[in-house]
Write a structure and sequence with these properties.
This protein is an alpha/beta fold and 465 residues long. The protein has a domain of 219 residues: Rossmann fold. The protein has 19 helices and 15 strands. The chain has a six-stranded mixed β-sheet with strand order 3-4-14-9-10-13, sandwiched between helices. A five-stranded parallel β-sheet has the order 8-5-6-7-15, with helices on both faces. A two-stranded antiparallel ribbon has the order 1-2. The protein is globular and about 60 Å long. It binds pyridoxal-5'-phosphate and the ligand N[C@@H](CCOP(=O)(O)O)C(=O)O. Pyridoxal-5'-phosphate binds next to α11. Keywords: Amino-acid biosynthesis, Lyase, Pyridoxal phosphate.
Length: 465
């Protein structure tokens, strides 16, 4: 498979170079040249297979020709062997026709583990084959950082620097990022919000001298490999609920639009998905965009679902590209307008295409707290505040007979305060993470200043030596 940039002005790359590049050199995001197709009978044949087997089949067209099949199978089996549930991503029924897809059985209790556990191993494999090193820089609103650190800690060929917004992540999320004892891990607390961290990251990618000198690579969902790994659980869950004979809908708690874009990819590949519902918290830029046709940034509001406190939703660019009929000039003009005036208008046809496949809704603070309480009372199930945003929105959007799957993006114990305030119960960390909050913290505080952050990374990255 070859990969092209959404802005149409970067070199066409194979899978390994796309994964190592992270962001395209023209500032765009890489997407596959075409969507692989799975027929109904090919999807049917996946029924009853293990998560790892389905993962290999679904991802193979994206990596074929670049990684040997047996090696890929070994890497996938090892990655999902780290999950503490035999099904890897199990489904739990929470309502009459409503299910939560638990994506938080990995090492850091967040859906990010699904992709990170794979990418850490894939990158190692590719870098070893080339005898190269890389410097991974990531921006996080809380969960990506912990999952990336867990996946890359102690790896010989990479150093990892994670930029997180100081004071805006939960204490559990912070400790997951700051308590590693490995020398290749660097947690950086940035004065600002997640958008500032992501802005710094994109500026580093758009700075060729720095990018080259540290051999910059990224593991945010701007990296295609992240999306590829997340496509798999749409297949596994839909299969469990009767696909391909019965369509399924998904509601996805959304911030950077990576997780829901993976659902779009699954649908483009042939999985019968009726509707993809975007669920936002009070940072509702995407819900407003679908309603008004204008993507317009406002300030970031602090909520109880901090990982979704985002305004610049990077992967929306990938959807824009696809929904416009893959017109790179339309994407370039939208992104130029966003940079200049913090807004852009969607072209009429692009907006209609998006509205045909997606719906969107918002859960305000009190609504997500009420949802945690209500589900706990009625079914005994404890939601984290991000998943609660999803369940609240899903319940406003139910239509037709298709089962509604809400993506359960984090374990409630990552956000004990918000859960306790909502329903009076303080969720506990699993025993194997029981000492997390006693572990020693190690991080560096930096201002939101590109030069200062780049200098810090250059001084500590081994790839520069
Ligand atoms: C717990 C949780 N839920 C939802 C999201 C939103 O996912 P995405 O950024 O892929 O839209 C995130 C962050 O990415 C998260 O950490
Ligand atoms: N919510 C995310 C923000 C970054 O998202 P990513 O999917 O692009 O890595 C987080 O938890 O950091």
């Amino acid at each position: 498979m070859k990969y092209i940039s959404t802005r149409g002005q970067a070199p066409v790359l194979g899978f390994c170079d796309t994964m190592l590049a992270g962001l395209a050199s023209d500032g765009g995001l890489y997407v596959p040249e075409t969507w692989p197709q799975f027929s109904a009978s090919e999807i049917h044949a996946l029924r009853g297979r293990s998560y790892a087997e389905i993962a290999v089949t679904v991802m193979w067209p994206f990596v074929e020709g670049e990684i040997d099949r047996a090696t890929f199978e070994g890497i996938v089996a090892e990655a999902y062997g780290t999950f503490r549930h035999e099904a890897v991503c199990p489904l739990v029924q929470t309502g009459a026709n409503e299910f939560v897809l638990e994506l938080f059985h990995g090492p850091t209790l967040a859906f990010k583990d699904v992709a990170m556990q794979l990418i850490g191993r894939l990158m190692d494999h590719v870098l070893a084959g080339r005898d190269e090193r890389a410097t991974i820089v990531g921006a996080t609103s809380g969960d990506t950082g912990g999952a990336a650190i867990e996946a890359f800690a102690g790896r010989e060929r990479t150093d990892i620097f994670i930029l997180f917004p100081k004071g805006r992540v939960s204490p559990v999320q912070q400790r997951q990022m700051t308590s590693s004892t490995e020398a290749n891990v660097h947690a950086l607390a940035i004065e600002g919000n997640f958008d500032d961290c992501q802005g710094l990251l994109k500026d580093m990618f758009n700075h060729p001298a720095f990018r080259q000198s540290v051999k910059l690579s990224g593991v945010n969902s701007i990296n295609w490999a992240r999306i590829m790994a997340q496509v798999v659980y749409y297949f596994t869950s839909a299969l469990s609920l009767g696909a391909p004979d019965r369509p399924v809908s998904f509601t996805v708690p959304t911030g950077n639009f990576g997780d829901i874009f993976a659902g779009h990819v699954a649908r483009q590949m042939g999985l019968p998905i009726e509707c993809l519902v975007i669920a936002t918290n009070d940072n509702d830029i995407l819900a407003r965009t679908l309603e008004t046709g204008t993507y317009e940034m406002r300030g970031v509001v602090k909520t109880t679902s901090p990982s979704m406190d985002i305004q610049v939703s990077s992967n929306f660019e990938r959807l824009l590209f696809d929904a416009s009929g893959r017109k790179a000039e339309e994407v370039r003009s939208a992104m130029a307008s966003l940079k200049q005036s913090s807004r852009f208008d969607l072209a009429g046809q692009t907006l209609s295409t998006i509205r045909a496949g997606f719906d969107a809704g918002t859960a305000h603070l009190a609504e997500s707290a009420a949802t945690i309480r209500e589900i706990r009372e009625k079914s005994g199930y404890l939601l984290d505040p991000h998943t609660a945003v999803g369940v609240h929105v899903a319940r406003q959007k139910v239509r037709g007979a298709a089962p509604m799957v809400v993506l359960g993006t984090a374990h409630p114990a990552k956000f004990p305060e918000a859960v306790r305030e909502a329903c009076g119960i303080e969720p506990e960390l699993p025993a194997w993470l029981g000492d997390l909050m006693e572990r020693h913290e190690n991080f560096t505080e930096l201002p939101s200043d590109l030069k200062i952050v780049e200098d810090h990374i250059s001084r500590h990255a081994r790839a520069t030596r």
